[in-house]
């Protein structure tokens, strides 16, 4: 009975030992993770994601690292700018483990080390930048900090992906001065915009007046040209009509009875014009030959006759 009890206890103990050994030896590494294995206190290997078997009581998981991107808040720190203005800066840093072995043995706590390095680097970069540039060139400052941190963190097996300034806190006096400066700048821009608008309006008005004067002068010029052309055409038509009339009169005179008709027409016009002269003037000068109208007509007839003879010659 005693032997049976001892054997049962021994078997139970052996089974318990096997169970513990299996638990100790079996390891499942999650996705995007690395386990650092030490054998008898010395680095042995790095396990990637999956199922692995260890030697019980000899191998152990010394460090477990995630390969995912980590976000670290960088605490507020006081920085002095190049123009001796103290500002408080909060930041956020994004890092990633790229070598689990170096992250385990290169430094004691890479998260804390990276945070402290980010603070000192930020103070150095801000110390070389004026206050106005800290707002205008925030992206450039972030790039400089990332470059400095990444170079320093390479022996630690981590990579600094990004650094972002989350907040810049200014003293109250500096805030008031900046607000006054921005207010003055906005007023200056408004005054410039107003003056530019007035200037453009005056230019537009003057250009309109100039174009109006040009249009009026062009219209007057065209009017004068049209009137001149009209008068020229009128004179030409009158001259043509007069010449045609004289030509027809000359032809009529050559015909039978033409001279007698001309003499009669001249006598009629003579009497008519003399009558009109008597109506318009109270005082008249009467020609000595007034009683001899026939003589005047005969004289004109002789002139026409002489003119015809000259033309025939």
Task: Kindly summarize this structure in a few lines.
By secondary structure, the chain is an alpha+beta fold. It has 8 helices and 8 strands, in the order αβββββββααααβααα. The radius of gyration is 62 Å and the shape is rod-shaped.
How would you describe this structure in keywords?
single chain; 313 residues; alpha+beta; 8 strands; rod-shaped
How many helices?
8
Largest sheet: 3 strands, antiparallel
Give the class from helix and strand content and strand pairing: alpha+beta
Rg measurement, Å: 62 Å
The share of residues in helices is: 55-70%
Q: Give the SSE order as H and E letters.
A: HEEEEEEEHHHHEHHH
Label the overall shape: rod-shaped
Mean pLDDT, all residues: 81
Query: How many strand units?
Result: 8
Strand content: 15-25%
Unreliable stretches, pLDDT < 50, 5 or more residues? Answer: none
Distance between the termini: 189 Å
Strands of the widest sheet, in order across it, are 3-2-5
């Amino acid at each position: 009975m005693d032997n049976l009890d001892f054997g049962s206890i021994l078997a139970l103990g052996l089974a318990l030992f096997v169970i513990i050994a299996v638990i100790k030896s079996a390891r499942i590494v999650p996705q995007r993770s690395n386990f650092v294995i030490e054998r008898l206190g010395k680095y042995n290997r790095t396990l990637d994601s999956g199922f692995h078997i260890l030697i019980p009581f000899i191998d152990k998981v010394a460090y477990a690292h995630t390969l995912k991107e980590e976000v670290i808040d960088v605490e507020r720190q006081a920085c002095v700018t190049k123009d001796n203005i103290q500002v408080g800066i909060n930041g956020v840093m994004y890092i990633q483990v790229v070598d689990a072995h170096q992250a385990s043995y290169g430094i004691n706590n890479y998260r804390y080390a990276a945070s402290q390095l980010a603070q000192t680097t930020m103070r150095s970069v801000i110390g070389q930048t004026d206050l106005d540039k800290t707002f205008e060139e925030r992206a450039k400052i972030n790039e400089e900090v990332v470059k400095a941190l990444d170079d320093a963190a390479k022996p630690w097996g981590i990579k600094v992906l990004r650094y972002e300034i989350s907040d810049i806190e200014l003293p109250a006096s500096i805030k008031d001065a900046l607000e006054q400066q921005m207010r003055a700048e906005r007023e200056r821009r408004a005054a410039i915009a107003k003056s530019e608008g007035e200037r453009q309006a005056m230019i537009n008005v003057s250009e309109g007046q100039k174009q109006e004067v040009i249009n009026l002068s062009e219209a007057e010029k065209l009017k004068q040209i049209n009137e001149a052309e009209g008068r020229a055409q009128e004179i030409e038509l009158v001259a043509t009509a007069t010449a045609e009339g004289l030509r027809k009169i000359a032809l009529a005179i050559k015909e039978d009875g033409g001279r007698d008709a001309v003499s009669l027409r001249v006598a009629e016009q003579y009497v008519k014009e003399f009558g009109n002269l008597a109506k318009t003037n109270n005082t008249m000068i009467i020609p000595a030959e007034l009683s001899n109208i026939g003589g005047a007509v005969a004289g004109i007839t002789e002139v026409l006759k002489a003119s015809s003879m000259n033309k025939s010659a």
